[in-house]
């Protein structure tokens, strides 16, 4: 059985978490939870909610929880359309709010907008419901896969104690 953790960025490449253009997301990865080898082996099989744990860092979870809590005034754990509109009508168009809310509901099978589906929807929309040009979570997902493949291909020192075959696959 394999064990160990891959750290995608060294401390030398870590940057403080500041608002960054989407193209610079890879530099922000140093503060997030490292991906264990067992998880990486199944990465393609994981649902987006399962991947979120490794894609977001602590300060992002805190901010998302705060944003969600501000909308969920009845503290039901679900944001209704009325709660969402009340929180965003000053800053957002009805079209933007509807697109965000529909995306949020879709993540839960069209049933509701709970905290996790809200976090997923925020990958495609800003706090006020305006759509990003690219889905941030999809970009992070792709970057995690690319970085892991690069590490395996180069057999970096980050994976001490493992042997690799000619295809970069870890062998016992």
TrEMBL record:
Domain EF-hand span(s) in chain numbering: 59-94
GO MF annotation: an example: calcium ion binding
Protein name per Swiss-Prot or TrEMBL: EF-hand domain-containing protein
Keyword terms of this UniProt record: Calcium
SUPFAM superfamilies cross-referenced by the UniProt entry: EF-hand
Coiled-coil blocks: none
Highest classification ranks of the organism: Eukaryota, Sar, Stramenopiles, Ochrophyta, Pinguiophyceae
InterPro entries for this protein: EF-hand-dom_pair, EF_Hand_1_Ca_BS, EF_hand_dom
